[in-house]
Amino acid sequence: MRFDILTLFPEIFTGYLGQSLLRRAIDKGLVEVYLHNIRDWSPDKKHKKVDDRPYGGGPGMVLRVDCVVPCVEAVQSMVPEPGHLVMLTPQGRRLTQAVVRQLAQQSRLLLLCGRYEGFDERVRLLLRPDEISIGDYVLNGGEVAAMVVIDAVIRLVPGVVGDPEGPQWDSFSEKMPGLEFAQYTRPREYRGLGVPEVLLSGDHGKIAQWRKENSLQRTRQRRADLLGESAPPTPPPQNPPLH
Ligand code: 97T
Q1: Cα separation of 223 and 207, whole Å?
Q2: Is the CB of residue 91 less than 8 Å from the CB of residue 45?
Q3: What is the model's pTM?
Q4: From atom 4 of ligand 1, which residue's Cα is the shortest distance away?
Q5: Higher pLDDT, 174 or 56
Q6: Which end of the chain is more exposed for a tag (fewer CB within 10 A), N or C?
Q7: Cα-to-centroid distance, 144 and ligand 1 (Å)
Q8: 112 pairs with which residues across the strands?
Q9: Is 55 helix (H, G, I), strand (E, B) or coil?
Q10: How far apart, in whole angstroms, are the C-alpha atoms of residue 204 and residue 70?
Q11: What is the CA radius of gyration of the chain?
């Protein structure tokens, strides 16, 4: 799978791209990642300006259409097969594991990262990108959101995650509609806290049963919405501390 990242800040990605899982996927030839600096397509040959003040006034700067559109077109034509264009934006459809699965079907993704007050509206009209938001909060730019997309998508590329059974059992996958069960490892006791006896029993049937129940109980308590249920009743307020 090929990713082309279009950004004004390619350096933001270098630490992440050196990270072990992604690095190994790149080294194994399963994933290719290319960085492109939108500034390289600025029509302003002297100052390389990529943004300008909004028509109508107001705060912030807007990314210029005559910079972004030529950049996307040039990157698309770097290889014969055009990629699926994703624009990271708070106005996009929300990223869920179902969306991640859709994106993982593509063999090439272009991730367009904006900054400032956003893109000139004509970028959307001309390029018709798949607009994606990673959640209802404000970021300083699309770069962190693009890393979230890459991180979630590469897990579904065959061979990237060591154990091919791994991603199937991730939360939000078909086999795990709810949250993961509680995990324990050594030591057997820490500060008076032990490990559920069943996990030490070696009885795989019982262990599977415990995990299923633990997973369901946690999902009910924390994310009842995932089970199509309403949220659990909120606990009564605690008494204020006495001084
Ligand atoms: O807040 C943003 C600013 C720029 C680009 C993307 C975002 C964003 O994406 N998902 C949530 C917020």
Answers
A1: 23
A2: no
A3: 0.93
A4: 141
A5: 56
A6: C
A7: 8
A8: 6, 87
A9: coil
A10: 58
A11: 23
